[in-house]
Amino acid sequence: MSQGARRLPGVEHPQVVDPRHPLIERVRELCLALPEAVEVEAWGRPTFRARKPIFTYVSAHMERPFSVVVKTDPEEHRALVQDERFYGVPYFDRNHWVGTDLDAPGTDWQLLAELIETSYRQVALKRQLVALDAMRGPSATG
User: Fold this and answer.
1) What is the pLDDT of residues 16-43, one digit of tens each?
2) Beta carbons of 72 and 119 less than 8 angstroms apart
């Protein structure tokens, strides 16, 4: 488990992916840069939360350990699932979540950073959004 991460009490799950892998570290850096974001290991995976609600988690399923799952803007969801880089995630796809593989050739990290932030915005509290907009400057909301 990475430094600063914590486990949820209860049932232990096997670790799906090494949380110290460079791809996971890169996702962690993007997620933990957001206001009040925390990492919690759940289901054997790193999850990133806006305090409590999850906005990003790593490893869509055992066969795709180097993937990331984000909650999309409902208006952008249809376009994303039609893009071959993204796929519906079991149990989550009907709630506007998509997955993408981090280890795919040509991973667009800029787009991934934008999707992580959009996901955060879907679940964050108002004070967290105010803090994020203040971090981003005047152009963040318009």
Assistant:
1) 888 899 999 999 999 999 999 999 998 8
2) yes
